[in-house]
Amino acid sequence: MDLFQTFFNLDVLVRTFPMLIEGLWLTLQLGVSSIIAGLILGLVLCMIRLYSPAVVRVLARIYIDVFRSIPLLVLLIIVYYALPFVGIRLSPFASAMTALTLVSGAYTAEIFRAGIEAIPKGQFEASAALGLSHRQTMLDVILPQSIRMVIPPLTNNSINVVKDTALASVVAMPDLLKQATQAQALAANPSPLIGAAAIYLAFLLPAVLLVTRLERRFNRGNA
Amino acid sequence: MSGYVSIRNLRKSFGTFEALRGIDLDIGRGEVVCVIGPSGSGKSTLIRCINRLEPFSDESEIRVDDIPVIPGRSLAKVRAEVGMVFQAFNLFPHLTVRENVMLAPRRVRGTSRADAYRQAEMLLARVGIREQADKYPSGLSGGQQQRVAIARALAMEPQVMLFDEPTSALDPEMVGEVLDVMKDLAGTGVTMIVVTHEMGFARQVADRVIFMDSGEVIEAGPPDEIFANPKEARTQNFLKAVLHH
Q1: pTM here?
Q2: Per CATH, the architecture of B5-91+159-244 is what?
Q3: Which residues of A make CB contacts under 8 Å with B?
Q4: Distance between A98 CA and the closest CA of chain B, angstroms
Q5: Does domain A11-220 have CATH number 1.10.3720.10?
Q6: Alpha-carbon span B195 to B5, nearest angstrom
Q7: What does the pLDDT look like over A132-156, one tens digit per residue?
Q8: Which site in A18, A87, B169, B239 is 20 to 30 Å from A142, CA atoms measured?
Q9: CA-CA distance, B36 to A82, in Å (whole number)?
């Protein structure tokens, strides 16, 4: 019973719930804006990586590989604590969003590339033979077909971005985790942490199950 | 005098393999030409150069209606005038049959939706698949898909139609329906260049038959001459192999 009072203290949970909800709101804002910015960055990077002059293509490739290798926490600390030395001072939210977007963009670029390279060459040839420009070919023929294929891995990446928002608490952003640790300190009880974990799960577990379902559906190979 | 499609010194290599070793060819407006020859002879590569799906070197020259087939604006012009039908159909699987036919006129020519729709109805009726207009390509047989591909190419109102082994991927019972559509088309005055293994079609429909081997044009002439009295030994051997098996 003591254990229950320690970790699932209802009284403490109710008292600190508003703090957690505030944190959740910020976490969702950070997650969604980073996912969207990462998608745009990833699409642009992917186009550069596939269809630009060789020199620029190499740069895109280096970017993608570097940002897939660097630990997100290290990048976040650099953005928040190191950039001010060169005069770039970002808020905790902006720092976290920058770091998340830079990394998510690199992963997204690779996901889009795989989606585009999976489209048969004949689709490009038929488009070219009809006189479609490269842009039209991409927008009307290739990307609509790629989207279906990339939805499961993109959802997966989005889950990772939302999970990684928790790192923002180290740069003092009052996200869900930061709020929970503060509530824990105030109440001298760890129940808010358990509450935060439950809230993360409530959002992300359904998303994980969705990916599994999507993958199964797309793998069944309905053309 | 040069032809409507004129090809000069066309050379193309894949690595060290010479696929085309200097082709010179003139094709007149409205002419129906069948290109025959063993596989690997370069016939597909030849017609894929005409709309530059295969890049070729600067020493070679191709012109369509006197427009040089070189990258940039003039290539866009040429591609709008030259339709192509592929062995593997290459229909757009995410679009319905009608949308497949409407896409290029809408995007490249800027045709209005209503006009493109009407034109698609007309073309799909012409190739005999109007009832399937709202289906997706995967719901059609191979023969039907290839007829849609022909309608899609015709929607750009091309002056020249290229056919790259259009019946080679079809089940035997579907070859006829596609050849029939092509025969009708040959009567409309559009210039046709057809790479094919269908000797009956070549004999019946072509104005001129071109026999290729090892990246060269070995012999060319009216079908009666080529099929009845081939002059070159390589032509004779090829025809003997494909006609009496």
Answers
A1: 0.83
A2: 3-Layer(aba) Sandwich (3.40)
A3: 120, 122-123, 125-126, 128-133, 136, 140-141, 144-145, 148, 223
A4: 35
A5: yes
A6: 16
A7: 999 999 999 999 999 888 989 999 9
A8: B169
A9: 69
